[in-house]
Design goal:
Blueprint lengths: L19 H11 L4 E5 L3 E7 L13 E5 L2 E7 L1 H22 L5 H14 L11 E9 L2 E7 L5 E9 L4 H10 L8 H13 L13 E7 L2 E6 L5 H10 L27 E6 L1
Helix pairs in contact: 4-5, 5-6
Length: 273
């Protein structure tokens, strides 16, 4: 219905009550390579598939450290993710300087959701075209949050975003009841099994295109990539374990980007903030 009349400005509502520019930003998350997260009673784990523009290029980083107790996985525009990561690091640094303690993850994520939402209120800015999965550990235990360009914020036991993430979500939904009592290594294996369902048919999960991050009790945010990831992949191959069901999402665009997860589609929800 004359869509192009209402999508030139982020503050213009369509007759159907939609902000089309916000929906476009949310759609960019869906085009990004898959990223997933899960947590137990002691640890939070992130997993991601890294893309390379060619066989001669390095793979793009998908998991970023924010502080010793927190890190993010991204699906969407990488440049926007770097901007947000820099802001989050500064907030954590300022809080630690003033109060002498790590910044509570809930407070930081609430501020981040407000930052996302403010971009939808004025025509001089555009929404951030990136979705985040945030793994953290604080005095209340491990956390897994998901943000989206619209400003919505959710906390999950397990979730997956990005292209071909439906298979990963299906696997996590089938096994989430066992996650709470899972060990650190068990969580990592669950993440890898879920990731195997997110790769395209002609691609295998390897130490080069896979990435895992862990944070938890008595453990700072730690990236597991390259040779450190290979033992887990060898174990996965011996088990013959793969993730999820059939993937109905055929998006395979080269640019990182995406769509907000609904409560039904976004994973196993613990709490909506």
């Amino acid at each position: 219905m004359f869509r192009n009349q209402y999508d030139t400005d982020v503050t213009v509502w369509s007759p159907e009550g939609r902000l089309l520019q916000v929906e476009y930003a949310m759609e960019s998350v869906k085009q990004g390579s898959a990223c997933l997260g899960l947590r137990s009673s002691t640890h939070s784990v992130l997993g991601a598939l890294k893309r390379s523009v060619s066989e001669h290029a390095s793979h793009q980083k998908k998991l970023l450290e924010i502080d010793d107790h927190m890190g993010i996985g991204i699906a969407g525009l990488t440049a926007d993710a770097r901007t947000i990561a820099k802001w989050m690091r500064n907030e954590c640094l300022n809080h630690k300087y003033v109060y002498g303690t790590p910044m509570p993850s809930g407070r930081l994520l609430t501020d981040l959701a407000d930052k996302h939402q403010r971009t939808t209120q004025t025509y001089v800015r555009r929404p951030y075209g990136v979705g985040l999965l945030v793994a953290s550990y604080d005095k209340n235990g491990p956390h897994l949050y998901q943000t989206c360009p619209s400003g919505n914020l959710y906390e999950y036991y397990a979730s997956a975003i990005g292209a071909r993430s439906q298979s990963g979500r299906t696997y996590l939904e089938k096994h989430y009841e066992t996650l709470n009592d899972a060990s650190r290594d068990d969580l990592i294996m669950h993440a890898l099994r879920a990731l195997t369902g997110c790769v395209s048919g002609d691609v295998e999960l390897t130490k080069d295109n896979g990435s895992i991050a862990v944070v938890g009790k008595d453990e700072k945010f730690t990236l597991i990539e390259g040779d450190e990831l290979q033992p887990y992949l060898d174990r996965l191959e011996l088990e013959g374990g793969t993730g999820g069901g059939d993937d109905d999402d055929d998006d395979d665009d080269d640019e990182e980007g995406g769509e907000e997860e609904t409560k039904e589609e976004g994973g196993v929800e613990a709490m909506e903030t």
